[in-house]
Specification:
The complex is a heterodimer of chains A (98) and B (605). Chain A is an alpha+beta fold. Chain A has 3 helices and 5 strands, in the order ββαββαβα. Chain A has a 5-stranded antiparallel β-sheet. By secondary structure, chain B is an alpha/beta fold. In chain B, helix 1 runs antiparallel to helix 2 and helix 3 crosses helix 4. Classes of the chains: A alpha+beta (98), B alpha/beta (605). Chain A: Pfam families: PTS-HPr.
Amino acid sequence: MSDERNTAASDVATCTVQVGNPDGLHMRPITLVTQAASRYACSVSISKGETDADAKAMIQLLTLAAACGESVTVRAEGPGANEAVEEIAALISATSPD
Amino acid sequence: MLLKRGIAVSPGVAVGPAVVLGVETFRIPSQYVRVDAVESELDRLDRALERISTEIGENEQIAADRLGAQYGAIFAAHGQLARDASFQDEVRAYIRKKNYSPEFAASRVIRKYTKALQEMGNPQMAERAADLFDLEKRVLRELLGQGRDELKNLTDPVVLLAKNLTPSETASLDRSKILAFVTEGGGRTSHTAILAGALELPAVVGVGRFLSDVAGGETVIVDGQRGELLIDPDEETLADYRRRAEARRTESIRLQTYRDVQPRTRDGERIFIMGNIEFPEEVGHCTDRGSDGVGLYRTEFLYLQGDAEPTEEEHYDAYCKVVTAMAGRPVVIRTMDLGADKVSDSMRRGIAGHLDSALGLRSIRLSLQNLPSFKTQLRAVLRASAFGDVRVMFPLVSTLLELRQAKMVLADVMEDLDEEGIEFRRDIPIGMMVEVPSAALRADDFAREVDFFSIGTNDLIQYTLAADRADPDLANLYSAGDPSVLRLIRWVVEAAARHDVPVTICGQMSSDPKFLPLLLGLGIRQISVTPHVIPELKDLAGRLEVAGCEGVAAHAEGLELARDVENYLRDEVERTRSGRPEPDDRAALVRPKSKRSDHWAGAAR
């Protein structure tokens, strides 16, 4: 699932995963990601290449246009960063959102 | 400002607020709100978003209960999108900082994202845009509430932008409220094009994807002449276009007075100006402008509708419409002028080779290889000839043999009609397009065997200069002013005069006013043009004198480069329009005046 993970003292966590859903990051998985991210107090971002999206902002995630098999990096900063990254990375790499 | 190019199908310029149809059927009534209304408008936005969220939540519950959780989830996604904080923040920022109305702001933000999705080059992602359009629809519906403004309830004139328009949609539009059309799809022969032409609305089609670049209510400019759409133009451009639109209106009102004017030069020479049409509906554009006839009726559209070949009755109905409307004035029907790539499979049977080549099996060549289909068309032409002054014309004739074969088929069809006791005009004038250099060079021989010539300059230029007319890289080469083209026209006109065969010029060259003095000077007295330029050409003809035109032609023929010819002719027309006198040295160049003047009347019977 994860090929890289760093946890710094100041509650910053990152994790790079491959998109598991065969249809890529479309409405359905994005809904789950934003719902999950919104439960955390920390900031969560997902980036693909140069593009960076707020994981709590659905419309931004949509424009990431991450297709199945593409790598994205989840980054969280603030309280609960580790847990947030873990949960969201799992959602992104899941082959089925359910 | 954003410029989009498409296919110009109906000329004219229009400036106005955009209405985007097809993706949304809402019209955004105003782009801006007053500064003191910003807070109340923000409240209105919040309330609308809240209602949407509630509504979607209810839908989610209903769908989940009845269909299962995965269907409910579709609505959950939409609900989440509506509640999306970054989306809402962007909309609010527009309202606060730019005083946009909530409708315009929301539309603007959503369009920004749909555009991003569509531009990713990933079809799956492009389809996601539909979800965002759906959100936009909901937001607008909610914001506009009962005041929802559909196309039927337009109060002020708008520019209609659509993916595509169905004929019924177009037909139901309020003509006085639509300034122009622009569509993403469609071609020169699409329904939108036909209707725009028939309604004489400026129109551009085949622009490709642009609807996501424009928000409803935004100001757009449509230039139906150049085939351009300008979205959100700057003030300078806008002022320029408003001036042009105004000048055009004034000019068209002035030119309407030319309807009943017979085109004559200042020294009384009668010029025959006819119209080129493609669809029977366009005949009105000719009669409205007092056209001397239909000098070129292109029949290709009949072959481009549907998969099946047109029946004799379909041909006949179309021809009768035109012939009846022209009430005794000549109608030149040109037989099928298409490449094998454009015709139905049944006609193409057994044909190999390059189907779309300009040098290939097309036009009369194809007709002669598909006799049943050719005969069907000729039967319809002959039957229609009983109702008016119908003339038949064969396109792309390159050898005498082809012409003789075509005439033989026509004679066969006449015989059949005779046997069946069907009425037609036995002495129907038979003509040919002169558009292949081989035909132009042998004009003397051809003139003995036809009743009239029509010089098709579009193809004649292309074949003479070996320059594909559709290739923008060859635009410099493809010129009606090329000395070789002028020489061929002169050659054909003189050969025709020797055999008392009238010559018409059709094609873009004759529709361009700057060539009128040259053509008159070369001895041409009949032209067939795009109907909307008829009044302008009548006006111009009235300012010219034959002797002066002959001087212009002689001078132009002495120039060595197409560019020089075109520049000279442009200056000449400017000079004529401004009423400046001719230079004195022109008289020395004048050729002896032709004793024949009325070619067209001579061909009538």
